[in-house]
UniProtKB/TrEMBL annotation:
<dbReference type="Pfam" id="PF03016">
    <property type="entry name" value="Exostosin_GT47"/>
</dbReference>
<keyword id="KW-0333">Golgi apparatus</keyword>
<keyword id="KW-0812">Transmembrane</keyword>
<keyword id="KW-0472">Membrane</keyword>
<comment type="similarity">
    <text>Belongs to the glycosyltransferase 47 family.</text>
</comment>
<dbReference type="InterPro" id="IPR004263">
    <property type="entry name" value="Exostosin"/>
</dbReference>
<dbReference type="GO" id="GO:0016757">
    <property type="term" value="F:glycosyltransferase activity"/>
</dbReference>
<feature type="transmembrane region" description="Helical">
    <location>
        <begin position="18"/>
        <end position="38"/>
    </location>
</feature>
<keyword id="KW-0808">Transferase</keyword>
<keyword id="KW-0328">Glycosyltransferase</keyword>
<feature type="domain" description="Exostosin GT47">
    <location>
        <begin position="102"/>
        <end position="386"/>
    </location>
</feature>
<keyword id="KW-0735">Signal-anchor</keyword>
<keyword id="KW-1133">Transmembrane helix</keyword>
<dbReference type="GO" id="GO:0000139">
    <property type="term" value="C:Golgi membrane"/>
</dbReference>
<protein>
    <recommendedName>
        <fullName>Exostosin GT47 domain-containing protein</fullName>
    </recommendedName>
</protein>
<dbReference type="InterPro" id="IPR040911">
    <property type="entry name" value="Exostosin_GT47"/>
</dbReference>
Length: 437
């Protein structure tokens, strides 16, 4: 019996010697299968703000299938915003910081803004506009409304030593129409001379080299206003509608994009999606834009497009109200008021403007309420828009209703309106170390 047991043990050893290489391979195969299972499992997670959120593994992961994560929006009229369709990068972080700004921010305004209109022939360049809702202001409405809102706000301090920022209150739009300062060269000379006067009469400029100073303009000629004063150009903050990477004097990390808005005193009631029977609307001059010329040539005969060179054959706002998508196409400048018009009327903006530094982009996720395409994609425009899933479009439409208050100006500023959002952009640039005066 001992011999038999020995023979069985010997056979087992022989089999083990034969199977041993295969056992190693089997272990490797099992480990690979386990890793693949883990990897597959991880694909069913979406990473949001440092937290992994699991979704149903049977669903195809996409915008319209994701389970919504509901976040209570404490300061937004009780709206419920989901993390995957919210128009904000991080609403809660922004809301907390905004409240801190409201309590803390201080801005010193140079006294030229408070002088009498009879004090000097140049007084009108500095004092607030007497009728900011005059339709003739057109594209330059935001420039005037900012000054009026700031001067009437609690942010203004008479103690320059406690100020975070210093406002240089000249108006490029007024200069452009001033009988003694109206050419581009004269405006550049005036701004350079004013900056020198500020730096010689006050100590605040020299404490930071002008880095905590800012000025506001929406007139296209203003993009070169600082060209004859090196420190004003390199150091100070320009709050401008002409927020383009392509502009030689615009510095993206320093300067601030100002929403270009037309004078309107009443908020529009949004037309619902099912009442929007046209795919696309655009009306505007094409003479100064190759992209607009291509747009007209390619799509003027398409019945789903309302494309006009110049004015439309029906009221301008009707084009926004009856269309799902409204085009913003670069003209002479990268910026136009069509973006804010589209937002105001609930028409999803389609941005076809290269080099555009979008206003409020550090707070708003523009991909959640607009479509951004390159100018070279104009021939593919219809295919791009028709490929947008219905639920994605409905999410963008809903978000327009949320964000449009950020693109509105009021006679009496309201919380989270365009004025407060621009001031918040300044707030984010605070903290510059200054020497004592």
């Amino acid at each position: 019996m001992g011999f038999c047991a020995y023979r069985k043990s010997f056979k087992l050893l022989k089999w083990w010697g034969f199977l041993r290489p295969f056992s190693v391979m089997l272990i490797v195969v099992v480990m690979v299968c386990v890793l693949l299972m883990v990897q597959t499992k991880m694909k069913n997670f979406i990473h949001k703000n440092g937290v992994f959120v699991q979704f149903d593994v049977k669903e195809k992961v996409g915008m319209k299938n994701l389970e919504l994560l509901k976040v209570k929006n404490r300061s937004n009229k009780g709206e419920i915003l989901s993390t995957n369709v919210s128009p904000y990068h991080d609403w809660e972080l922004f809301a907390v910081d905004y409240e801190e700004m409201m309590k803390t921010l201080k801005i010193f305004v140079y006294p030229d803004a408070f002088m009498s209109n009879k004090f000097s022939t140049f007084s009108s360049i500095f004092i607030p506009h007497t009728n900011p809702f005059d339709p003739k202001l057109g594209n330059y409405f935001s420039e005037h409304m900012f000054k009026i809102a700031l001067l009437g706000s609690s942010f203004v301090t008479k103690k320059p030593e406690e100020a975070h920022f210093y406002f240089m209150p000249f108006s490029v739009n007024i200069m452009r129409n001033h009988p003694r300062v109206h050419s581009a060269s004269a405006i550049e000379d005036f701004v350079a001379g004013y900056t020198d006067r500020v730096s010689s009469e006050f100590s605040f400029w020299n404490a930071s080299g002008g880095a905590d100073h800012f000025y506001v303009y929406c007139h296209s000629i203003g993009r070169d206003a600082a060209s004859k004063h090196q420190k004003l150009h390199h150091n100070s903050i320009q709050v401008t509608c002409s927020s383009s990477y392509f502009q030689r004097l615009y510095i993206a990390h320093k300067d601030i994009g100002l929403p270009q808005v037309w004078p309107r005193q009443h908020e529009e009631v949004l037309n619902p999606p099912d009442a929007r029977h046209k795919l696309v609307f655009f009306a505007g001059r094409i003479q100064n834009s190759l992209a607009r010329q291509d747009l007209l040539e390619l799509w003027k005969n398409d019945s789903s497009f309302d494309i006009f060179s110049g004015s439309s054959s029906f009221p301008y706002k009707e084009g926004f109200r009856r269309s799902r998508y409204c085009l913003h196409v670069k003209g002479y400048e990268v910026n136009t008021a069509r973006v804010s018009d589209a937002i105001l009327y609930g028409c999803v903006p389609v941005l076809i403007s290269n080099y555009y530094d979008l206003p409020l982009a550090n707070i708003l996720d523009w991909s959640k309420f607009s479509i951004i395409v390159n100018e070279r994609d104009v021939p593919h425009l219809k295919k791009i828009l028709l490929s947008v899933p219905k639920q994605t479009y409905l999410n963008m439409y809903k978000n327009l209703g949320i964000v449009r208050r950020h693109f509105a100006w009021y006679s009496s500023p309201k919380k989270y309106d365009s004025f407060h959002m621009i001031v918040y952009q300044l707030w984010l640039k605070r903290g510059l170390h200054r020497v004592d005066w």
